[in-house]
Amino acid sequence: MSQLFTKTLREAPKDEVSVNAQLLIRGGFIKKLSAGVYSFLPLGLIVLRKIENIVREEMNNLGGQEILMPVLHPREIWEEAGRWETADYLYKLKDRQGSEFALGATHEEVITDIARKYINSYRDLPLLVYQIQTKFRDELRAKSGLLRGREFSMKDLYSFHEDEEDRKKYYNTIENSYLKILKKCGFKDIIVAEASGGSFSKEYSHEFQIPTIAGEDLIIFCKSCGFAQNKEICDLRQEGVCPNCEKELKEFKTIEVGNIFALGANYSKPMSLSFLDRSGMTKPVIMGCYGMGPSRLMGAAIEVHHDHRGIIWPEEITPFGVVVIQIESKNEAINEKIKKTAEKVYKKLQEKGVAVLYDERENKGAGEKFMEADLIGIPWRVVVSERTVAENKIEIKNRNEKEGALISESKLLEKIL
Amino acid sequence: MSQLFTKTLREAPKDEVSVNAQLLIRGGFIKKLSAGVYSFLPLGLIVLRKIENIVREEMNNLGGQEILMPVLHPREIWEEAGRWETADYLYKLKDRQGSEFALGATHEEVITDIARKYINSYRDLPLLVYQIQTKFRDELRAKSGLLRGREFSMKDLYSFHEDEEDRKKYYNTIENSYLKILKKCGFKDIIVAEASGGSFSKEYSHEFQIPTIAGEDLIIFCKSCGFAQNKEICDLRQEGVCPNCEKELKEFKTIEVGNIFALGANYSKPMSLSFLDRSGMTKPVIMGCYGMGPSRLMGAAIEVHHDHRGIIWPEEITPFGVVVIQIESKNEAINEKIKKTAEKVYKKLQEKGVAVLYDERENKGAGEKFMEADLIGIPWRVVVSERTVAENKIEIKNRNEKEGALISESKLLEKIL
Questions:
Q1: B97–chain A nearest CA distance, Å
Q2: Count of CB pairs separated by less than 8 Å, A with B
Q3: Least Cα separation, residue A320 to chain B (angstroms)
Q4: Which residues of A touch B6 (CB under 8 A)?
């Protein structure tokens, strides 16, 4: 911990109103560069990469092939699909020769351009291609920390099919993948809601929504049958009654953490992405698009898992599984013993493959060290102090517990693993 | 190979003049979106990530702490260091509220802004922080494929010191790291050359240069004593004679793949990054900056390692270590045996942790499969055909060899590992 270059901050920055940004900045996970634009510092990057890897693993399990598309999109490709003028959230720029570009807010145009190079026949279908990449949106308001960034990490999966029937076959598989990812990231309550399919489509899209008061979306949800819709599309004449089972509908504030869109031939037709079907006919490829934002998941995890002392990281995305804290003694002989014990525990955990943060800083009191550990939100805290070495024990406490327990060193691993 | 969504192309695109772009596009590693802007397709992304991980490992060995800084830089931060007006290679844009941003071409301003939050005392120094991230440069000409991109992958390491003496202490360590990375990426000839320190500095910078006719730089090099300078700075009156040992100087075309800059207090002074030294005095932090571009390394590797048939990947960065090719027979019984044998070899190699590409495509002739394997550049080719199963052997050939050899399956691992 003495070598980690970030430090925790006592005060939350005044211009940050969201809990996730306040705690992430105070904990030294991120630093704001401008509204909606953050640097990921060492602790924050570990969490972001863990989330990205959980997402990547599931995309690979689906048979998705990973690629990496550019940020700079030439105007021409957005014009081909007819979106250059209408997408008001696009950052646009001119290079010094006068050519115009947009910063990628989404990559339907670019993936369609790639796909038309390689898809010719029904034999090339179905196909799943994804990337995990940095995206840009010129948001009018960016006050929700990692929940609504102007620059953010995004996983976008695109699927290519012979027809709508085949695309629909994939819906459940991908929904299951999404639920698995969200559970792994520590989310227990997840609502899959119908929402608008966008300006192109009459079909509903599906949103993966996490209920929390920090949410910017409103979802109508029936606990009885699972019916859920984004309030933007729901029929207000129903007045709180589920159209399926006629039970009461509840309203939740939620964060959208993933979505599934049917794209039909909206991109393949104008951009001439077609294939020869089994009977030799040329047809437009049918597409689907599936978004999920790792940096937004990181922000949402904190909105759901925190208390007044700080973050409480879910096990799978915590930057460290354990923090080992040594508390100095004024007695030098005892101090030696404390240091030796703490170091031994630290090394033993590392050998077992546990990611450990070792708070070996001198001249810091127990109170300050505990406060910082709680703020950073490491699930397990191990304390070695005058009191614990006197009893030949160590103290262990879960971030969710109020009181720690004294246990013998040999019992540590079975406790935390 | 039947599942890989990219396909090799017979023709190189006419607008690509560089060998690296031609071979990478024909092999299905990358696809051009606009000049100097490429998508990395599945094979290309594997190579890029391998190079990035080689770089990352060495940066971590140095004690570097990894972070991730943004692409969108507000105008104000570039004005603080006085570069907004002068950096003509910056892409600039306005958001819809009129605020101005640059796309990060380099991150001295942003890292200095982060460092001034966390560095207060000599106890916080020295410090090494790095990122591997996508950068942008509005290049006037972008005709060298991955060698000079408008959007490209970059590792930038920044070091922070109490004084110049401490910064210089790190020079050799980092030079050794760089040489280790370049050797791991398969480069044998590396010239470390003095070059201009930039507009800010009288001190030389150091460039890591790879000799090749595809290079855009010119280096003066003395084989006898190792003296090397970028021709931009060298004293032309010397007329081909080494100023150190008076032996003959040779001129090489080279690709710059890494650099080391002394930044002094050029950023810390205007941006108020200072620290309290051991005597309680406030001093500006002394900085160094160390660049290396993974995507450019990928392009340079191909310029150095290719022949008329295609790429020849160095072992450590190849997307696959082995390609297993099965050649169909018209005799169905023999065909079964061929498939079984090829599949067995494929699985056995995978079990041993070898990355294998399995060319199980039907209705493709031997000639076409061999041509594609050579183009993609996999180091080892294993062939299972009518001829090999008749002799109860498999054929193995290194990409550098002209003729393959028949060996028994059991000898395969010792041959390639």
A1: 8
A2: 138
A3: 15
A4: 118
Give the separation between CA B128 and CA B108, rounded to whole angstroms. Answer: 13
Q: Same fold for the domain at B19-307 and the one at B320-416?
A: no
CB distance A134–B134 less than 8 Å? yes
CA distance B24 to B30: 6
Q: Is B5 within 8 Å of A124 when comparing Cβ atoms? A: yes
- CATH number at B19-307: 3.30.930.10
CATH C-level class of A320-416: alpha beta
> B138, A95: Cβ pair inside 8 Å?
yes
Nearest residue on chain B to A7, alpha-carbon basis: B118
Q: Which of the following CATH numbers is that of domain A19-187+258-307: 3.30.930.10, 3.40.50.2300, 3.40.50.300, 3.40.1190.20? A: 3.30.930.10
What is the C-alpha to C-alpha distance for residues B258 and B195, in angstroms, rounded to an integer? 12
Task: Provide the residue count of chain A.
Answer: 417
Q: Could you give the ipTM of this predicted complex? A: 0.97
Q: Which residues of chain A neighbour B29 with C-beta distances below 8 Å?
A: none
Chain B hits for A70, CB-CB cut-off 8 Å, are 33, 37-39, 151
Measured N-to-C along each axis, helices B294-304 and B19-26 cross at an angle, to the nearest 10 degrees, of: 100
Nearest to A68 by CA among B26, B294, B29: B29
pLDDT in 10s for each residue of chain B, 417 residues? 999 999 999 988 888 999 999 999 999 999 999 999 999 999 999 999 999 999 999 999 999 999 999 999 999 999 999 999 999 999 999 999 999 999 999 999 999 999 999 999 999 999 999 999 999 999 998 889 999 999 999 999 999 999 999 999 999 999 999 999 999 999 999 999 999 887 666 789 999 999 999 999 999 999 999 999 999 998 776 678 998 999 999 999 999 999 999 999 999 999 999 999 999 999 999 999 999 999 999 999 999 999 999 999 999 999 999 999 999 999 999 999 999 999 999 999 999 999 999 999 998 999 999 999 999 999 999 999 999 999 999 999 999 999 999 999 999 988 888
Contact B8, B375 (CB under 8 A): yes
Work out the minimum CA distance from B37 to partner chain A, whole angstroms: 7
